[in-house]
Design a protein that fits this description.
- The structure is a single chain.
- By secondary structure, the chain is an alpha+beta fold.
- The chain has two domains: 8-91, no CATH class; 93-179, no CATH class.
- 35% of the residues lie in helices and 21% in strands.
- It has five helices and seven strands.
- A hairpin with a 2-residue loop joins strand 6 (172-174) and strand 7.
- It is extended.
Length: 191
């Protein structure tokens, strides 16, 4: 039985309430990020409305405020994120995995602000093309890879930092057989 989860001392919504205005005033914050921060700030407050729960036995009442339902909100998106992780775990093969990250040079990050769909699509295609090319090369693996890829558009400091996280099995399939990396199991593509 797992230990009960303790409430954090400081919630993200409180951090956004305290520092969000200053952060957004610095300029250069993408509109999507501003909307997300605004949703998190207002989550489960009177700004989003609410409803009253009444006990039919004792008559006591409690007000519950509505959630923002934003997938980035730790309260609202937390359950969906955990369910997604559990679904992915069920898909795992009984092999080692590698965590690879592909990013674009910071000098061209601003292009993503103006044509996000094109840039992020290109980032995914390029990351997959690179993995597939190395995987099929007999020098490295000589097999077909698989991958789960997730786009992150901002860094831990909330600055624009587009990158793709890839979870890649350490090996691949060739003619229906599992192929291990040629240069050791620790890494897929070791020089």
């Amino acid at each position: 039985m797992s230990a009960p989860r303790r409430r954090p001392r400081l919630e993200l919504a409180e951090v956004v309430r305290r520092f969000g205005t200053t952060y957004m005033a610095c300029g250069g914050v993408p509109g999507q990020h501003m909307r997300t921060l605004g949703a998190i700030k207002d989550c489960r407050t009177s700004k989003l409305g609410g409803h009253m729960l009444c006990c039919t036995t004792c008559g006591s009442t409690k007000i519950s405020y509505n959630s923002c339902r934003n997938r980035h909100c730790p309260k609202c998106g937390g359950l969906a994120r955990e369910l997604w992780i559990e679904d992915r775990k069920r898909e795992l093969l009984p092999v080692r995995y590698q965590h690879l990250v592909f990013t674009i040079p910071y000098q061209i990050n601003d292009l993503c602000r103006y044509n996000a769909r094109f840039c992020y699509s290109l980032l995914f295609r390029t990351a997959w093309s690179t993995l597939d090319t190395f995987g099929r090369d007999p020098k490295w693996l000589g097999a077909r890879l698989g991958a789960t890829m997730v786009l992150h558009t901002w860094g831990q400091n909330l600055s624009l930092h587009p990158h793709v996280h890839c979870i890649v099995p350490s090996g691949g399939l060739c003619d229906g057989e599992w192929v291990e990396p040629k240069r050791g199991k620790a890494f897929l593509f070791l020089g």
